[in-house]
């Protein structure tokens, strides 16, 4: 059984890893004025955070359905089936675009998967699927494993400024206003595919400490975990945090990733997150 694995750019899986594991990627877009850029193809995270210092914050858009159709047509000639894993359908139409494209390509056996999340936490599903596909496992087995992973998958993140999320329609204006007035650094997470506040915390340090507590509660249940620290242009801080966490949690394997252009547009520079699942 030959199974292809597809994801979108918001998983922020480095190119070398995508190539090594044969992962096919469809990019989302950031639009500065009238100029669209495909993230991870035409603009990197580093370039994006430089650009937003001097330009108005961009907008974002999902991939055109034609891009999915073109990719699926190509894959249908080489593979028996396609597993397509995407960011939460509650914040983007990308997943639905993949589903619709699957109905438009004759002969493609598509297994779409809504990660109900984004960034490298979504990437964890993709890496697992790609490794299984390389071992010759079929789409049905892969989806079953991804659903199993979803039971222990958790992610929490904090933003420095709620205005970005509110402006992009990912958080209500009332929540943004209250957060701004109180100088709150809210912890956010995904519930029912949407970004919602988890707790309101006054300082960045306390917010990050609270995330550590939540990881500790999970890790204390035993077993091996895989976790990712995600930063919005705060690499040094993320690497320092990784060192601290590795000392605290010997049963957790940590990596560092980033909020790229599309997600960074909605969270703003300085956001930090932590996600994990039980292996």
From TrEMBL:
Protein's UniProt keywords contain Calcium: no
- UniProt protein name: DegV family protein
The cross-references to PANTHER family, in alphabetical order and at most eight, read: DEGV DOMAIN-CONTAINING PROTEIN DR_1986-RELATED, FATTY ACID-BINDING PROTEIN TM_1468
Gene source species: Neobacillus notoginsengisoli
| Keywords associated with the record | Lipid-binding
Keyword Iron listed? The answer is no
NCBIfam families, per this entry? DegV
The family database entries (InterPro entries) matched by this protein are listed as: DegV (IPR003797), DegV_C (IPR043168), DegV_domain_contain (IPR050270)
SUPFAM superfamilies per record: DAK1/DegV-like
Q: Which GO terms describe its molecular function?
A: lipid binding
């Amino acid at each position: 059984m030959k199974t292809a694995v597809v994801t979108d750019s918001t998983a922020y899986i480095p190119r070398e890893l995508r190539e090594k594991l044969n992962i096919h990627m469809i990019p989302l877009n950031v639009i500065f004025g009238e100029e669209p850029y495909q993230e991870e193809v035409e603009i990197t995270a580093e370039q994006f955070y430089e650009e937003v210092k001097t330009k108005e914050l961009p907008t974002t858009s999902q991939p055109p359905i034609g891009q999915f159709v073109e990719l699926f047509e190509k894959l249908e000639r080489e593979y028996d089936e396609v597993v397509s894993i995407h960011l939460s359908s509650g914040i983007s139409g990308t997943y639905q675009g993949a589903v619709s494209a699957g109905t438009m390509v004759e002969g493609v056996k598509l297994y779409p998967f809504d990660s109900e999340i984004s960034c490298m936490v979504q990437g964890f599903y993709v890496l697992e699927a790609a490794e299984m596909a390389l071992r010759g496992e079929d789409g049905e087995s892969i989806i079953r494993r991804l659903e199993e992973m979803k039971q222990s998958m958790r992610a929490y993140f904090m933003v420095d400024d709620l205005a970005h999320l509110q402006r992009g329609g990912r958080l209500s204006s009332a929540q943004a206003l209250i957060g701004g007035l109180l100088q709150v650094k809210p912890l956010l997470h995904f519930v029912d595919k949407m970004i919602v506040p988890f707790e309101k915390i006054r300082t960045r340090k306390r917010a990050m400490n609270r995330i550590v507590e939540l990881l500790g509660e999970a890790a204390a249940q035993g077993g091996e975990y895989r976790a990712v620290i995600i930063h919005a242009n705060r690499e040094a801080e993320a690497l320092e945090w990784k060192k601290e966490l590795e000392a605290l949690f010997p049963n957790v394997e940590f990596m560092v990733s980033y909020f790229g252009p599309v997600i960074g547009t909605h969270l703003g520079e300085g956001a930090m997150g932590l996600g994990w699942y039980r292996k």
